[in-house]
Amino acid sequence: MAVGNPHITTMRSPLGRVRGLGSAKSGTAHWWAQRLTALALVPLAVWFVISLLALLGQPHEAVVHWIGRPLHAVPLLALIVALFHHLQLGLQVVIEDYIHGEAVRLAVLLVMRAAVILLFLIAFVAILKMSF
Amino acid sequence: MKDAPGASKVARNSEGKLIERPLSPHLQIYRPQISSALSIFHRITGVGLGLGTLLLVWWLAASAGSDADYAAAVGFIGSPLGLLLLFGWTAALVYHFLNGIRHLAWDAGWGFDLPTAHASGRMVLVGTAALTVLVWIIGLIVW
Q1: So what's the pLDDT on residue A69?
Q2: In this complex, do A38 and B100 lie within 8 Å of one another by their Cβ atoms?
Q3: In sequence order, what are the beta bridge partners of B19?
Q4: Residue B24 has pLDDT above 90, yes or no
Q5: Is B42 annotated to bind ligand?
Q6: Which cofactors must be present for this protein to function (chain B) (predicted)?
């Protein structure tokens, strides 16, 4: 649709307008990290669901022994690294899309990231504790 | 140094004529169809799985704890509410997994034409129902 006589009242150069916006930020790194963690989670998630099915109804001691073996602890650690990184990236986009107030958005992002990091650390320490 | 309202919507078309860029369609005027429904569902299941990690972390922490800790976590998961959450978690995981692969295929440039995208969307829905039920049948047999 053509506009009568639109004009842009700005003294900023095109370069100044685009700096710090859009692809000039780190959008690609975020996008790429989300895809890579997704790719890593494809085999890890399948392995985890099958493992959970195999562990169903096992006594506590057997579960601890199973998790503690290097061949199980390492993929489990890889799973939670990829999972919580992927979760943090995904929740960030959701928060940025739906929360418009800048201060509230920043606060929610920080709380979300702190929560994800704490959950990751609990899982991480729990797996290590059963490994040694 | 102040932008006029809507200045960022003003652009030049290929003939160099100043035009006002259209707004992209938003929810109020966008007719829902399978692609948009599956897209928002991917987000909803993603957030749900995020909440589900609470259960995963509890299970791991309880495993690393005492027998009583473990019994409490497993007792909750085996309760009616726990089983309901676990069922929702399974369905959300299978959906997010299958639709995530669909998204990765798109990112690689595959299956982006409408008939294929619609067909893969229907496959995701059927696959989610089938795999969720399969996992639970196996789970109930093993348990």
Answers
A1: 96
A2: yes
A3: A2, B11
A4: no
A5: no
A6: heme
Token pair for A102: 């800048």
Residue B81 DSSP SS3: helix
- 8 A C-beta contact, residue B89 and residue B55: yes
Burial of A47 (0-12, 13-18, 19+ CB in 10 A): middle
Q: Which of B9, B26, B5 is nearest to A1 (CA)?
A: B9
Digit-coded pLDDT (tens) for B49-100: 999 999 999 999 999 999 999 999 999 999 999 999 999 999 999 999 999 9
Give the minimum alpha-carbon distance from A44 to chain B in angstroms, rounded to a whole number. 11
B54 contacts A3? CB cut-off 8 A: no
What's the gap in Å between the CA of B20 and the closest CA on chain A?
6
Structure tokens at A27: 């959008």
- Residues of chain B with Cβ-Cβ distance to A91 below 8 Å are 46-47, 50
Within 13 Å of residue A37, how many CA atoms lie on the same side as its CB? 19
Q: Structure pTM?
A: 0.83
Cβ atoms within 10 Å of A108's Cβ, excluding its own: 17
CB contact under 8 A, A87 and B49: yes
C-alpha to C-alpha distance for A51 and A102, rounded to whole angstroms: 43
Contact A6/B20, CB-based, under 8 Å? Answer: yes
Q: Is the pLDDT of residue A16 over 90?
A: no
What residues 72-101 of chain A have any CB closer than 8 A to a CB of chain B?
83-84, 87, 90-91, 94
The one-letter amino acid code at B48 reads: G
**A21 close contact with B: CB closer than 8 A:** no
Find the mean pLDDT for residues A82-95: 97
DSSP secondary-structure letter at B29? Answer: G
